[in-house]
């Protein structure tokens, strides 16, 4: 039997072939259409994936995409590391540390700047860094002028008798407590109570008929820094200042620890940062210094006193009763404004040329090693300094150890990580400012961000971030990935949102001058942030006192110190990973448009007053519009670019990382006005100074009290020539920022 296939030559076979051919011709268009749809869908999916990986393109919260990959180092045997891999690796190694023990041990060591104990601690930290997998470890030494009390001639406070002779002394409980950089010498005058010593407080004092000029002022701790209190007193003609802690400014909960009534609080009074005897110059040993001093050094003496001494003084005051909001909780009722009996203050502090040492450790970046993400912590402390510097030092060392372990397991950042232990912080960020002054020409081109670990744990009720606007969106994103240390099952973001739906109003604060991060932004033009966990509504009572011990900090946090310190380390570490390894820097350069808009809203109130004088703010409005357009244009360029194009990404990163620097006024001298930032700085070139000046259009008599803080002597009114100069300085700095953000000169399109 023979098996045969179909007879293709038959009529039936030919008919079947014809049917198949006709069907194929009819189906062809549908096949082509289906193919096109599949291709288009794949393209759109790829495009959306790219959108998710663009770290600076979002309008609000930056998105962390699993598509962001991290290539391992050349000596690694691992494959590609994704964000989730890095996050898990970081948390695993961080969990192996011993933060609490390091905090305890550091707080037990004597470490006043320039002391033998500080030198020993510096060497121990250097050895610890050398034991990690870092590419570079080094120290630099600065020779700075620090002020110390004179043990042979302690500071004194005496009553003055009616005949003008010195009377009975008021015994200062601890002669080690003083105000570094106070003017030395003697001051005699009647005593006046001036609340917190703010310009508006002194103006209110005058309005009550009590003149601060020619008198000694008694002011409370809080609201503004020691330096600002003394500067305001000097502006109003006072002869000296006594600063005391009032129990009304601390927790009233009887179950919480409070500051002893015989403790005074330490604080420097230099209205600035760094070595005030070499303003604008780095204090290296070979530097030939010009014979100048910082304009922020006061000309009047200042001294901290305890609540007990303050009570004795307040009982002697006469005159009007202080306003209700000025009343405190000392055993004196009511507080009066004065004047009171005469007092004689003698301050005998002396200046000492002191070597201080900063310690550095570096992990070099793989793709952009010349761009640095910097994290630092103050190491020195006037007293035990558990909260002031021991916590920050412990977290810094733990992060060094953690990132070193990550490097050993395949991690290599795109940008360099720079870890720094600062000296001289208690004297006004001296170590960090001198380093900035020494390397400013390099750092403003290479430093991406500074993260400060100072004052990181002062409580556990609420979280604050004092920061540049460029970092707000990134901070929000990281908060959503860090667990709350005291609210189980919640992230930090959920914790802050629980009581306030406007999270940034609850969390974000501007950088104050007494923060170590301030100089990075206001002086060097580098975006910076300082994190703090705090008590709700009340200050940590032991900061800058001899009671800032590990035991007291542990009790204030009710045993949660390790958990809170761990949360800070997680927050800072994940911030470092994002900043050092995202292809595109996650800095929200559009935020400054909102900052300008907020200030302009305040200026708009005075448009009619200015117009009546033939003046206008139109140029500021135009410059702000140009900045907004430049930011939006750059955002669109990034949006449509290829993340894999390394050259293009680096070009964008350079423009983004220098945005903060663009807001340093190029029209004032760094030697005369070191804090040149128009939003954060200090001086006539700032937006706040312009606003304070414009307010004088509606003031009467002695003028606006805030004008003193802007560099205007109290009593002067609105000056058209000064207004025009301020407007020009501000407008062209803002316009310059818009032009720089636009990129190349042929891409600039503005309304001027």
From TrEMBL:
Transmembrane stretches, start-end: 30-50
Domain Peptidase M28: 358-556
Subcellular location: Cell membrane
Gene3D superfamilies, per the entry: 3.50.30.30, Transferrin receptor-like, dimerisation domain (1.20.930.40), Zn peptidases (3.40.630.10)
GO biological process, one term: endocytic iron import into cell
Key words, A-Z: Cell membrane, Disulfide bond, Glycoprotein, Membrane, Receptor, Signal-anchor, Transmembrane, Transmembrane helix
Membrane topology term: Single-pass type II membrane protein
Major localisation: membrane
Keyword NADP: no
GO cellular component: external side of plasma membrane
Annotated ranges, domain PA: 188-251
Gene Ontology MF term list: transferrin receptor activity
Database matches in Pfam families: PA, Peptidase_M28
Family: Belongs to the peptidase M28 family. M28B subfamily.
Known function: Mediates cellular uptake of transferrin-bound iron in a non-iron dependent manner. May be involved in iron metabolism, hepatocyte function and erythrocyte differentiation.
This protein's name: Transferrin receptor protein 2
Source species: Lynx pardinus (Iberian lynx)
